[in-house]
């Protein structure tokens, strides 16, 4: 009986040692993982700044309230073209895609499934939801066909380049850019036609197809999107466009009564005068 008990204790001791070693290995792997990913599983794209060496040092920066560190938070699944310009901090969630020759302002976030097509400019403090297409390329409507065999067979059908002699490529003219202002909220499942300008402070409702310019501080929705109402009266809108609060440093917004628009404007004007 004593022999069996001793054997059982020995087996338990061996299992304990194995588990202890396994925990040690997992801790090392966990630490290494967060060094690569950064806070909460996001990769840290540093634009002229040094990435923190550990999760603890990153936490310390947030505790000390240092939001001015030049750092963008970009999901590992997101794609950003090398020719895109991001004014940090910008946050990209999930598989958001940023194409070439785009510009995105500070404190703007873009959610998963959204694609920002080339030549698009997005201002500061914008909130962009899921599964949107901003400035997608269009197809010719008044040509013989809408197919790209007429103007871009090389990209879409590279195996048939020998047919280019039979299909001379025609240069297609498209709007140079799509412009999204500052403090714009674009909900989910929105398509914004290439060449459209959306004014500062505007809101685009879910499921909208925007084919015309949107005035500043307008709330639009529908297919095609139409102005439903404005966020504020004309006088308030004029004051906000004059102040351009989004152009200021984040420190200048400290202490502002955000939930009282009239008081916030007074405070912003007072800060500006000082």
Structural commentary:
The protein has 274 residues and is an alpha/beta fold. It has a domain at 232-274. It contains five helices and 20 strands. The strands form three sheets. A nine-stranded mixed sheet has the order 1-2-5-8-11-14-17-19-20, with no helix packed on it. Strand 19 (218-221) and strand 20 form a beta hairpin. The termini are far apart. The relative contact order is 0.07.
Helix and strand arrangement:
Layout: H1 2-37, E1 42-46, H2 55-63, E2 71-75, E3 79-80, E4 85-86, E5 90-92, E6 97-98, E7 103-104, E8 108-110, E9 115-116, E10 120-122, E11 127-128, E12 133-134, H3 153-156, E13 178-180, E14 185-186, E15 191-192, E16 197-198, E17 203-204, E18 209-210, E19 218-221, E20 226-230, H4 234-243, H5 261-273
Parallel strand pairs: 2-5, 3-6, 4-7, 5-8, 6-9, 7-10, 8-11, 9-12, 10-13, 11-14, 12-15, 13-16, 14-17, 15-18, 17-19
Antiparallel strand pairs: 1-2, 19-20
Helix pairs in contact: 4-5
Key features?
274 residues, alpha/beta, nine-stranded mixed sheet, six-stranded parallel sheet, 20 strands
The SSE order reads HEHEEEEEEEEEEEHEEEEEEEEHH
The biggest sheet amounts to: 9 strands, mixed
Mean pLDDT: 81
Global geometry: flat
DSSP strand tally: 20
Concise structural overview:
By secondary structure, the chain is of the alpha/beta class. It is built from 5 helices and 20 strands. The chain has a domain at 232-274.
């Amino acid at each position: 009986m004593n022999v069996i008990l001793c054997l059982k204790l020995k087996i338990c001791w061996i299992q304990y040692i194995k588990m202890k070693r396994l925990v040690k290995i997992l801790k090392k792997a966990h630490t290494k993982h967060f060094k690569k990913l950064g806070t909460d599983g996001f990769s840290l794209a540093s634009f002229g700044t040094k990435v923190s060496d550990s999760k603890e040092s990153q936490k310390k920066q947030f505790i000390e309230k240092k939001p001015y560190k030049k750092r963008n938070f970009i999901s590992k699944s997101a794609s950003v073209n090398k020719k895109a310009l991001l004014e940090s901090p910008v946050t990209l969630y999930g598989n958001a895609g940023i194409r070439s020759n785009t510009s995105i302002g500070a404190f703007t976030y873009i959610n998963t499934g959204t694609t920002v097509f080339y030549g698009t400019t997005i201002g500061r403090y914008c909130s962009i939801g899921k599964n949107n297409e901003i400035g997608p390329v269009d197809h010719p409507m008044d040509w013989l066909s809408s197919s790209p065999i007429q103007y871009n067979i090389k990209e879409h059908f590279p195996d048939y380049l020998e047919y280019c002699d039979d299909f001379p490529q025609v240069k297609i003219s498209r709007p140079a850019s799509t412009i999204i202002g500052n403090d714009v909220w674009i909900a989910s499942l929105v398509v914004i036609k290439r060449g459209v300008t959306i004014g500062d402070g505007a809101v685009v409702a879910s499921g909208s197809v925007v084919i015309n310019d949107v005035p500043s501080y307008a709330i639009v929705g529908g297919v095609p999107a139409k102005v439903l109402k404005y966020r504020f009266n004309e006088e308030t809108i004029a004051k906000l466009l004059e102040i351009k609060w989004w152009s200021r440093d984040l420190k200048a917004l400290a202490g502002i009564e955000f939930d009282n628009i009239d008081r916030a404007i007074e405070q912003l004007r007072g800060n500006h005068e000082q």
